[in-house]
Amino acid sequence: MNFDFNDEQRAIKDAARDLLASRYPLAEVRRLATEEERGFTDGQWDEFVSLGWPGLVVDETHGGQGLGIVELVIVQEELGYALAPTPLFSSAAAGLVLQAGGSDEQKERWLAPLAAGELRGTLAMLRDDGPAQADGDTLTGAWAAVPDAGSADVLILNDGERHWAVAADADGVTVESTPGIDPTRKLFRVSVDGAAADPLPGDQEIMRPAHDAAATAIAAESVGVAQRAMEMAVEYAKDRKQFDTPIGAFQAVSHRCAEMLLETEGARSATYHAAWALDHEPASGALATSMAKAYASDAGFRVPAASIQVHGGIGFTWEHDLHWFFKRGTANAHAFGDARWHRARVADLAGI
Amino acid sequence: MDLTLAPEEQAFRDELRSWLEANNPGREPEGDEAAFAFRRDWQRTLNEAGWAGISWPQEYGGRGATLVEQAIFNEEIVRARAPQLANVLGLAMGGPTVIAHGTEDQKERYLQPILSAEEIWCQGFSEPESGSDLASVKTRAERDGDDWLVSGQKVWTTFAHEAKWCMLVARTDRDAPKHKGLTYFLMDMDQDAVQVRPLRQITGESEFNELFMEDARIPNENIVGGEGNGWAVAITTLMHERATLAFGLQVAVKIALGELMERARETPSNGGSAAEDPLIRDRLAQLYIESEVLRLNAYRGLTAQMKYGVPGPEGSLGKWHWAEVNQALTELAMDIAGPRAQLEEEPWTYRFLRARANSIEGGTTEILKNIIAERVLGLPRLRLSA
Fold first, then answer.
1. Residue B130: helix, strand or coil by DSSP?
2. pTM metric for this prediction
3. CB contact under 8 A, B286 and A343
């Protein structure tokens, strides 16, 4: 029993923390969110490529690093902590699905370049305007809230039963920007109208661990978001004085901060456990994922919400950076299954 | 990261499980005295087989096992639904305090009879006017030759009527600042100057007692950790209380939740069962997750404690979180029982009432939040006038 990272994992964590802190000061996060159409720059992407991050969990035969979900979660938590706007997660999610249930040919065509960072991908889970219609090698349908689709080369479209790989530049593919609550991750509506679509052979059950890994990665991001929002609250509560006293000395404030720690640490434990289970105990991976995503969905927006309250009026201003964390936590809470959806799944899997 | 048991931990658990299967005496008899004698016999049996004082050093009669093995023991004993051990306060608090702060003579004298349950221990900390503010205790001890004479009142003293020794915090220097004037004594309960009165609680039972002392005599050699050092020694006792109990408590929550899930499946509701009611189902699932988070936080804290020597921040959250989860669980049980929840025969009514103490006993939730805010988050201390 050892519920801690090994030396290599700790090194990944420390390196990610340092790099992201230097590359993503909050002024840069704000600039990317409000001024960059794609939400990131080529230079930022290239640096992640040089570190091998796009291929972190892709197997070595396809040019990836062949690491586990634990390592993915480590990087995702740090991305959340830095609130780095980047299409890394979206591309990783597409890769996870291709790796779990793609054909050899599809892996050659899409997975290897995704791992190398030569191409980017995304995974669409939320159908828009009714069911998708497949006709031979073509597909017609629409998906909403697809992350980073505007900068993706391959779109993996899921209708709840099957997955298709569609080239973003194929005829009949329309990708429209749709403003989301969280401008640090760009969302798009993807519609395909008789577009060439390559069905992935893996059925929904084969793909389940890939979906779970994506949900756990989002949970990890929310853990980082909650951690940062808590630290901001604690710092503010030490500095801000009212009634000639730092407000953190008042129990109405300090107890709220203690509650943030309980929620953040609980979400962290559940998320690390889910990552470990997906890597080492696949039979319990689904239950562990849903426990983690349900808990981290709640913590991911509640902790930043509590932090806004601790900050008082300044926390509600556009100038303060806290709202970006609140928005990311909220968007994450509703992506890849919200807390209620995952609790229903826990109830089924736990035999309630 | 490896969340499975190491081969030697697995072997420890398997050996303990098969021993428990063969030796678990089952349900306690009715009646307080008979039940206590039963627990005393049970602890003797455990000790003779080497299962008492799991993480105590071998030289003091313990097993010398790791903290993980202690955690496994606390989990397994609850999972097997074995009776409680008679000397729980001696094992979890008194013994570790003597090991940490006692003299060699004290270790020689006190530790073995704790393990064998020959001498039961109780805790004399709280007073009617000193609850969360422990350092304000008024019970005073005056020097009388080689002895001390103690007068005052203690409250919420579990097992006082069975106990031989009381971990007593008393004021020995009235002129010193309040945290400095305290001394930690081991008081012999077997004297006329100590009177025990049962305290009836909202469940109608009397698990706790009040303790009245009128010139109770304590030899000077019964001081633990030195005169005037009582606050630091008392903190050791409290830390052990919170750290070691967590593993047993989280398993108890899981067992209770299993029973509640079964009850929900059997209880009709709106043409189906309560377990199918989406509102109940959502709350059950949340409790299932919380109980798992309790377990995971406890193990993460344990790993940190073994690696860095001190419990991680997540460890200090356990007692508070457990109280919240157990109260929510019993509240849901009452909702599932519906109108029948009014009846005393309803088995969850007792647990519902008993759970109110969870956020008070062993450190109130408010005090635990203060500790987390100040010592883990580094927030400023509230400066109180007076």
1. strand
2. 0.95
3. yes
